[in-house]
Amino acid sequence: MDFIEKYINAGSTSISNILLHHYHQIGMSTSELMVYLELRSYIDRGQGDPAVKQIAEHLGTSEDQVYDLINQMVKDKLMVQKMKKSDDGKESLVYDFSPLIHKLTRLVENGEDVKQQKQTQNERQKLFTMLETEFGRMLNPIEMSLVNDWIDQDHYDIEVIKLALRETVLNGKYNFKYMDRILSNWDHQNLKTPQAVQAALRQFDEQHHYSSGQSKSTPQPSGHQIPIFKLDSLKDQKHKGN
């Protein structure tokens, strides 16, 4: 058998890039990673309890060192050792790396949460900057608290809040209460995404344009009415809903 055949027949051991790039973050040393790879190379070939002596030879270290590393991995909850009974009733030691996978899972999920939090914080800061630019002044603490409540308690989409700001500016109100009523009105009509709000605004504009060209005797088009964004109109609609 030539070298190429031996190379192919020896098989290969794969490692997830998540583990390769983050093993230090879950408390795993490089030496422990090498022991893990050695153990996996045997486990993947159906040998649940490989000879530590052979692993030590491959790594160029002592058996005691390999045992110490295995015990440390168990202590750090990167793996567990347990007995497994075969079909013929014989028991053998097996290595279970489920704890390592669980640690990686938590690491990735927490990382995604942190990333999302940073993104949300950046979007929030951009919103504050946009509000201050459009209003031409710094926001006071009460106004900042109101905006935070829109995001954290009312769960308004930040892009929807920007659309409410646009409507406020177009109507020349520059009033946070006016913005709040717009957002409440949209939420009451289940317009919770920027796409839904924009579609509703387009529909209102089309109906308003059509209605303005009709005589008083001409029947007006029916359908879902989008609120006219005037403060008095919003107040009237709010009173009607109470």
Keywords:
single chain, 242 residues, Arc Repressor Mutant, subunit A, disordered C terminus
Task: Provide a concise account of the structure shown.
The chain has 242 residues and is mainly alpha-helical. The chain contains 11 helices and 2 strands, in the order H-H-H-H-H-E-E-H-H-H-H-H-H.
3D architecture notes:
- It comes from Limosilactobacillus coleohominis.
- The protein starts with a helix and ends with a helix.
- α4 crosses α5.
- A two-stranded antiparallel ribbon has the order 1-2.
- Helix content is 64%, strand content 5%.
- It has helices at 3-9, 17-22, 30-43, 52-59, 63-75, 98-135, 141-152, 158-170, 176-188, 194-212, 231-241, and strands at 80-85, 91-96.
- The chain is built from eleven helices and two strands, in the order αααααββαααααα.
Rounded to the nearest angstrom, the radius of gyration is 32 Å
Second-tier CATH architecture of the largest domain? Orthogonal Bundle
The CATH H-level superfamily of the largest domain is: DnaD domain-like
- What is the count of helical runs? 11
Instruction: Give the CA-CA distance, first to last residue.
Output: 88 Å
Number of domains: 2
| CATH class descriptor name of the largest domain | Mainly Alpha
Strand order of the largest sheet: 1-2
Number of strands: 2
pLDDT average, as an integer? 81
The helix-and-strand class reads mainly alpha
Main sheet properties:
2 strands, antiparallel
Written as H for each helix and E for each strand, in order along the chain, the element string is HHHHHEEHHHHHH
Q: Percent helix among the residues?
A: 55-70%
DSSP strand content: under 5%
By CATH, the topology of the largest domain is: Arc Repressor Mutant, subunit A
